[in-house]
Design a protein that fits this description.
Helices cover about 30% and strands about 15% of the residues. By secondary structure, the chain is of the alpha/beta class.
């Protein structure tokens, strides 16, 4: 969605979101400072479609081609429909043809036009929670940040177990590896809590995961009073064939709520996946205490992105170069 918003800025076009599957997006988030739902009765034509899906080769081409020439015919249409599942906006930060336009938009440093630098600002510009979720969010915040000095540690543990409804899921780690997260939090943060906040026990651990038992495991390890989580596991609704086209959105609420909540994390210890990284980037300082459980030699991932063998917790100091993420 944010990559499409980036494209609308470049092309100087009105940005509209129409997302109805697996549920209506306005049940999950509503416009904040920019009304992307303003033309509610507008019917989108069947053409033209900018159908990127997961076309990584085209994303690479966007680093160098003349985008205005490439989209010259499409840009004459009243509406451009965009369908994508990839974060293609980062390619624009490398495209020399876009340098003048990005300067017009205020990006004197073209490299700043990347997701990890704009996520927090753009998300706040576009979205806020509807009342039913906002109430739950404030209740969660009162537990996760009972006072302004509480140090909030966020752990996103993606196991990636396949289910009957989701046979395409990639297994990110062995089930037992969640214990590595708790041990890392113990030694890196809790042992040094006297240097991080006013009292050694003034901290909370927020856990989001795709497996319920990981949350209860964290509560047993740290103590129930120190752990915050939603009762439902994270689901990958792009892949989960069990999702129905319903307007209830009950299975998606927690995903949006957890993502919105992560902007308060003082530390983020996450799996190498969009669930954790995008949430960590949605903070005022996206690299603050950011650790990713990933391949320690990131050049290996450039050769084979799904090679995840020599894993450890990688401290991210340079958002541009320390981590390879598609």
């Amino acid at each position: 969605i944010l990559s499409t918003y980036a494209l609308s800025l470049i092309l100087n076009r009105t940005f509209i979101i129409r997302m109805t599957h697996p549920c209506e997006i306005t049940n999950l988030v509503v416009p904040n400072k920019y009304d992307w739902n303003r033309l509610r009765n507008l019917r989108a034509p069947k053409e033209p479609w900018l159908n990127l899906q997961h076309n990584y080769k085209l994303m690479t081409r966007y680093e160098s081609i003349d985008l205005f020439y490439h989209l010259r015919h499409m840009n004459k249409a009243k509406i451009i429909n965009v369908r994508t599942g990839i974060m293609f906006m980062n390619s624009f930060s490398k495209n020399p043809h876009l340098r003048p336009r990005l300067k017009e938009l205020g990006f004197t440093n073209q490299n700043d036009f990347q997701m990890h630098y704009q996520m927090y600002k753009w998300y706040d510009h576009l979205f806020r929670l509807p009342p039913k979720l906002d109430q739950r969010y404030r209740e969660m915040l009162s537990k996760g940040k009972p006072n302004e000095k509480t140090f909030l540690i966020c752990a996103q543990v993606r196991i990636g177990l396949r289910t009957a409804n989701n046979v395409r899921e990639y297994q990110f780690m062995e089930r037992s590896y969640s214990q590595k997260f708790w041990n890392f939090i113990d030694t890196t943060f809790i042992a040094n809590m006297h240097n991080l906040t006013d009292q050694k026990d003034n901290y909370r651990v927020f856990v989001t995961t795709d497996l319920d038992e990981v949350k209860t495991e964290a509560a047993e390890h740290f103590g129930q009073e120190f752990v915050v989580y939603n009762k439902n596991p994270t689901i990958h609704f792009d892949m989960d064939t069990g999702m129905k086209n319903t307007h209830e959105c009950q299975n998606i609420d927690d995903i949006v709520l957890e993502f919105h909540f992560q902007k308060h994390c003082d530390a983020a210890i996450v799996s190498h996946s969009g669930f954790g990284l995008l949430g960590a980037w949605n903070r005022p300082d996206p690299k603050k205490n950011l650790y990713v459980y990933t391949q320690l030699n990131q050049s290996d991932l450039k050769r084979d992105y799904w090679t995840r063998k020599n894993k450890g917790f990688l401290k991210i100091n340079d958002l541009d170069n320390d981590l390879y993420f598609l």
